Amino acid sequence: DGSPPSAAASAPDLPGYAHLYSGKVRDLYAPLDDAGHPRTDRLLLVASDRISAFDFVLETPVPDKGEVLTRMSLWWFEQLADLVPNHVVSTDVPDAVRGRAVLVRRLDMLPVECVARAYLTGGGLREYRADGTVSGIALPDGLTDGSRLPEPLFTPSTKAPSGQHDEPMSYAQVEAAVGPDLAARARDLTTRILVRGNELAAERGIIIADTKVEFGVVDGGLVLADEVLTPDSSRFWPAEEWEPGHPQPSVDKEFVREWLLSPASGWDKASGEAPPPLPDDVIERTRAKYVEAYERLTGRSFTARGAA
Ligand code: ATP
Ligand code: MG
């Protein structure tokens, strides 16, 4: 289905920047150089307030979501700085996107979505039920939806073009794609990021069940890019409600999913049609969830900095 027309249409016009691409949630720009040409060494990543559920970008944005997630990523980059260098150059960005945009080094990206799982659910659970393995790694019997894994696993997938689904990759495929050395480093860093993330999140009552990170390559070394340990790239579960044996509530999209699946929405998930707009109270409660996750994790209070 490609990038949704509404996404590109809502990408703001930024003087001094060339719009390159709009994904489901983010708009990418290249800053213009003195001659007015797009720079090839920098990117402006702008997180919109768009929210997706069940693989649809919903019509209704969640106010401040882009800013909350941008600030959460920046906080994590700092927490992880001794583990891995990152792509951040500056948060000095145009007023129109202040708070939700970051200027970054434009990197050659590894062609791999680096996923790590600390708990079993989603695609990992499906593979385990079929074959007793996750990403080809044999696991003990008796695990269920939400079980904590004996150790965090690297479960990479392809970077599918926008609108297509990522496919699982075996570790051997990652080695073939990037070489054994970078593959080993990506695997090691991805699982360490999740372990470190969970050490910090545990103190704040949040479980990070799994996460996806992306790396760029600079001088043969890996640099953490994209976003990191946000509810958009990870499954955040409220720790006090964790109970293996059934799907866990998510910290951020619980109300959205619940409402969409309820009779009140009038939406039939099986129809393949786009979901209806969200009612105001669902939006407001969802916004509050994102803010709460940010505040709990970072211990900072959230006041929107950006232009309304
Ligand atoms: P969609 O979410 O629609 O499936 P997407 O994941 O490509 O598509 P976004 O997450 O909105 O969309 O866009 C971020 C894009 O920017 C990703 O393709 C990511 O690989 C790329 N990216 C992130 N950081 C960097 C960087 N430092 N250098 C180059 N590319 C980057
Ligand atoms: Mg992405």
From TrEMBL:
Q: Which CDD domains match?
A: SAICAR_synt_Sc
- Give the signal sequence positions: none
Keyword list (alphabetical) reads: ATP-binding, Ligase, Nucleotide-binding, Purine biosynthesis
Give the GO molecular function terms.
Answer: ATP binding; phosphoribosylaminoimidazolesuccinocarboxamide synthase activity
Pathway(s) the chain acts in: Purine metabolism; IMP biosynthesis via de novo pathway; 5-amino-1-(5-phospho-D-ribosyl)imidazole-4-carboxamide from 5-amino-1-(5-phospho-D-ribosyl)imidazole-4-carboxylate: step 1/2
What Enzyme Commission number does this protein have?
6.3.2.6
What reaction is this protein's catalytic activity? 5-amino-1-(5-phospho-D-ribosyl)imidazole-4-carboxylate + L-aspartate + ATP = (2S)-2-[5-amino-1-(5-phospho-beta-D-ribosyl)imidazole-4-carboxamido]succinate + ADP + phosphate + 2 H(+)
At the top of the EC hierarchy, this enzyme's class is ligase
Which GO cellular component does the record give, naming just one? cytoplasm
Q: Where is the SAICAR synthetase/ADE2 N-terminal domain?
A: 19-271
Against InterPro entries, the record matches this protein to:
SAICAR_synt/ADE2_N, SAICAR_synth
GO biological-process terms attached to the record: 'de novo' IMP biosynthetic process
Q: Which family does it belong to?
A: Belongs to the SAICAR synthetase family.
Q: Which PANTHER family match?
A: PHOSPHORIBOSYLAMINOIMIDAZOLE-SUCCINOCARBOXAMIDE SYNTHASE
Tell me the HAMAP family matching this sequence: SAICAR_synth
Its name, as the record gives it, is Phosphoribosylaminoimidazole-succinocarboxamide synthase
Question: Which source organism?
Answer: Phycicoccus endophyticus
Task: Cite the source lineage.
Answer: Bacteria, Bacillati, Actinomycetota, Actinomycetes, Micrococcales
